[in-house]
Amino acid sequence: MSIDIREPIITVGIADMRPGVTGRLNGNFLIEGTGLLSGPFRASADSTGVLLFDEGDRLVAHAPSVRLVAHEGSTFRISDVTIGIRFHWERKEDQVFEGNLILTARDAENMAIINEISLENYLVSVISSEMSGIAPHEFLKVHSIISRSWLLAALDRDNAARVPVENPGEDELVRWYNREDHDIFDVCADDHCQRYQGITKIISDMAANAVNETRGHVVAYGDKVCDARYFKACGGITENYATAWEEARIPYLVSISDSPSALPPVISEGQAANWISGSPDVYCNTHDEELLAEMLPGFDRETTQFFRWKVEYSGRQLEDIIRQKSGIDFGTLYDLTPLERGPSGRIKRLRITGSKQSIVIGKELEIRRWLSPTHLYSSAFVVSISKGPDGRPDGFVLNGAGWGHGVGLCQIGAAVMAKKGFTAEEILSHYFTGAGIKKIY
């Protein structure tokens, strides 16, 4: 996206493909073509569209899409919103939102629940949802800028031609995921895009101030807004864009050391084993529990091992997981063989070998999905295999590094930098090579 725009109004998918929804309108909402509505409501979908009922169970609107426009100060609550979808922290919670509510029929049985809101108001919630609102102020400013940049760049990609699946050969499947998967709203409200939980969490003055202080500021490379990707912890070295997404070199999304001095890339299996078993002196290798409590929301703090981690499976367990996640029966699982790694040690291509077949999979997120009931923390791991009396593998241990795809800004590393006294501009310059900060509205 080129520089110099106006603040946009965006649409956020709170939930999708739901047969119905219940909630409450806190204040007055105008239903276009109908009138005002407030209080408890429910909605369902059928072959004719969305049916909206008030608290007396009277049908008040019936259309393919129903838009409820909030009067000033009004909010709405949606019950049982799923957060952390398919991640290890998945759960449901009731959430409260500012802005307008749109209910759109998907098919004869399902609907999408969409929030229409200004970008800057959206960001205040994102900063409080992604991070704790009491995190270091320079870090909150950093996150405001990258979240704004990521969204504006994502909106500009709507018409970009992207192929999310490649099949280089019969025995290889390469897949990655972009926010362009969403068709009737701009972004979703979950980790697939950016966490957005409305005003459910306490919106701190610090988070709101960080957004206001950076209003209209973005990370820019030349005259373009940067696609400012981010993740929880790199493990010591960040990753190249192409390890996680399509084969493209984006100059500001290249691997860098999460430290003041350069570290060698982790490419070979020997390097990966040494790297993952080590404890390098890097920003995200922190044991500062006070800082982690300040920056991470409560459910993220349930994940205590993120810089280095270990997952153990019996052979049967891992066979069952791979069969369920891939839909492929490999038979007896013989081996997991990394074929290509990025400089952070994250595996880009992995061969899965079983008694019935052998398939190469990629990229990093697909690998993480196939090898866990939810997701592995990252694809930067080494594999140890134990064998039973018959010589067949009966146990797999994955020792890994980092949390997330590793491309762009390391959130925990950036928070540590902020606590050490680095400014927002210095932190962003560290993680986004050659980029700078610009005000575009």
Q: Looking at the structure, what is the overall shape?
A: globular
How many helices does DSSP assign? 10
Q: Beta fraction of the residues?
A: 25-35%
Mean pLDDT across all residues, rounded?
A: 91
Low-confidence parts lasting 5 or more residues at pLDDT below 50?
A: 159-163
Radius of gyration (Å):
23 Å
Helix-residue proportion: 10-25%
User: N- to C-terminal separation?
Assistant: 13 Å
Question: Quaternary status of these chains?
Answer: single chain
Strand tally, please? Answer: 24
> What does the main sheet amount to?
11 strands, mixed
Structural class: alpha+beta
Structure description:
This protein is α+β, with helices and mostly antiparallel strands and 441 residues long. Helices cover 22% and strands 34% of the residues. It contains ten helices and 24 strands. The chain has helices at residues 119-130, 137-156, 205-213, 241-244, 269-277, 289-295, 315-326, 364-370, 411-419, 424-431, and strands at residues 9-18, 20-31, 35-46, 49-53, 59-63, 65-70, 75-83, 91-97, 100-105, 111-118, 165-169, 172-175, 187-188, 217-221, 224-225, 230-231, 308-314, 333-341, 347-354, 358-362, 381-387, 393-401, 409-410, 436-439. The strands form five sheets. Strands 1, 2, 3, 4, 5, 6, 7, 8, 9, 10 and 13 form an eleven-stranded mixed beta sheet that branches. A hairpin with a 7-residue loop joins β7 (75-83) and β8 (91-97). The longest helix is centred in the first third of the chain and has 20 residues, at 137-156. The chain is globular and about 70 Å long. The two termini are 13 Å apart. The model is unreliable at 159-163 (pLDDT under 50).
